[in-house]
Amino acid sequence: MTDAASTARVLRLAPDDHVGIALEGLEAGTSLSPAFPVTVRTAVPAGHKVALVDIAEGERVRRLGQPIGVAAASIAAGDHVHEHNLAYPGTLASRAVATRDPLPLANDIATFEGYRRADGRAATRNYIGVLTTVNCSARVARLIAQHFTPEVLRAWPSIDGVMPLTHASGCSISDGTPSMDMLRRTLAGYARHPNFVGVLIVGLGCEDNQIDRLCSETGLELGDTIRSLTIQDLGGTTASVRAGIAAVEAMMAAAAGQEREPIPVSELVVGLQCGGSDSFSGLSANPALGVAVDRLVAQGGTAILSETPEIYGAENLLLQRVADESVGRELIDLLEWWDGYTAKEPHGFDHNASPGNRAGGLTTILEKSLGAVAKGGTTPLNAVYRYAEAITKSGLVFMDSPGFDPVSATGQVASGANLIVFTTGRGSCFGCRPAPSLKLATNTPLFERMREDMDINCGLILDGLATIPEMGGTILDSMIRTASGEQTASEVLGYGDDEFAPWHINAWT
After folding, report:
1. Which of 79, 151, 204, 439 is deepest in the core (most CB within 10 A)?
2. Distance CA 430, CA 488 (A)
3. Are 389 and 404 in contact (CB under 8 A)?
């Protein structure tokens, strides 16, 4: 790791940092010499912070060269620094905007083996989707999908599966409200998604989210590959299931025989996620993913950074590299909306850091955000989008979303992500069909403990067995193989149906 002094036990990330990160649990009385003339005064768990200098009460505490809070009491060198003595003061980041010119594209563009759709878009998977307009049609959608068992699907070897996408909304929300607008954008984004070779939309009949209104509001056109049925019109559950099975079979027959072909990596659209984060997230998996993003963008690809509450306090790292000032202004507008919205919560933005995050060594949202932003690499930020809005620009872009992984990833897929890369330090179990989801462990103990759920061990960086650039190359290679059809751990385990979660306006869900 560059710009870091370390012993076998503690890592200091920037020369002016007040704290170091314990790479293993430290007992009271442990000497950190010769790297630091400090003796540990109180036990420090692995991943947590130890003070490397005396810190006065009220002084800003720095990690990664950035402030992560203020000392709530006097802190002596060697003390454990966490919730008992580190306070959240509100954002300390500047919101000044600076533009950066785009980086030159690489001369040689890699390819992946994907599906080319009739409209020219690139797909990484070949699913049939059964979407619901309302919670009342969820059971019928599941029954339709359940008919297509692995034995039945053997007749259509080019189809990856039939998946129901159900939700708990669609009624008692009015036209023109943010929740209805986002629900319809999300459903339309999934219906158009290139990873679906066909989609069946199932409605009840009397819901607020009528199929015809969904189509007219979003420009969605029904036809051979996007079909619909209404349960009340067909006479109930059994008749609707029969009609749905027939509709799916017709779409699968039309898609039979589709084959993968070489497609430039520039057509990959990758959603960036982190969940169950720990203090190691910002040291290993997230910066390594950032390297992979820089290399993907250099080949013309697209990466979507999201979870607006989880860039709070580190927004300066994005605002100082926007493609133009209007992009910076749009990002600031989002943050100002969240400033007002989270003021309704008892702890404001700082509530976002979960109990698991804090147990993993993250004390404040400012500290969590520094790690989260690292996923976006170092390239210019080219655009800012609303939740589930179609992505039209390449390079690094930002999509507004809450800091809850299923909701955020659902929006990214609706926006066009054909691949998700998800980092975790505590051990999230997640998948986001129809987009395959790669899981990156931040540390080796997690990777070993949850090996069947993890795809890549970024803990090799902390173990001294790989550098951040080397791991970035490993991640990009895995992204290309996954896009070409290699199954991820979450796909093998069958994750993806339950993680469809359109955003309803609520600070954390």
Report:
1. 439
2. 11
3. no
Q: From CA 469, how far away is CA 363, in angstroms rounded?
A: 28
Q: Chain-centre distance of CA 34, in angstroms?
A: 40
- Measured in residues, the chain has a length of 509
The predicted-structure confidence for 49-98, as pLDDT tens digits, reads as follows 999 999 999 999 999 888 888 999 999 999 999 999 998 887 777 899 99
Report the alpha-carbon distance of residue 255 to residue 252 in Å, rounded: 5
Q: What is the reported pLDDT for 194?
A: 97
Q: What sign results for the dihedral spanned by CA atoms 398, 401, 402, 406?
A: negative
Short-list 296, 226, 241, 289, CA closest to 267: 296
Structure tokens at 492: 């093998």
**366 vs 504: CA distance, rounded Å:** 25
The reported pLDDT for the residue numbered 507 is: 45
Contact 201, 228 (CB under 8 A): yes
Please spell the DSSP secondary structure of 107-126, one letter per residue.
SS--EEEEEEPTTS-EES--
d(CA 444, CA 278): 13
Which residue, chain included where needed, has tokens 């969904």? 214
Positions in the chain whose pLDDT score sits under 70 = 1-8, 346-353, 506-509
Report d(CA 266, CA 394) in Å as an integer: 8
Q: What does each C-alpha distance from 103 to 267, 268, 421, 472 come to in angstroms?
A: 18, 18, 23, 18
Distance CA 356, CA 426 (A): 7
Residues paired with 227 in a beta bridge: 200
What Cα–Cα distance (Å) separates residue 143 from each residue in 176, 225, 228, 442, 468?
Answer: 32, 20, 15, 38, 46
Nearest to 131 by CA among 180, 198, 177: 198
Residue 473: which H helix or E strand, with range?
helix 468-483
Residue 7 confidence (pLDDT): 53
Are the beta carbons of 469 and 291 closer than 8 angstroms?
yes
If DSSP states are collapsed to H, E and C, what string results for 223-278?
CCCEEEEEHHHHCCHHHHHHHHHHHHHHHHHHHCCCCCEEEEHHHCEEEEEECCCC
Amino acid making up residue 455: D
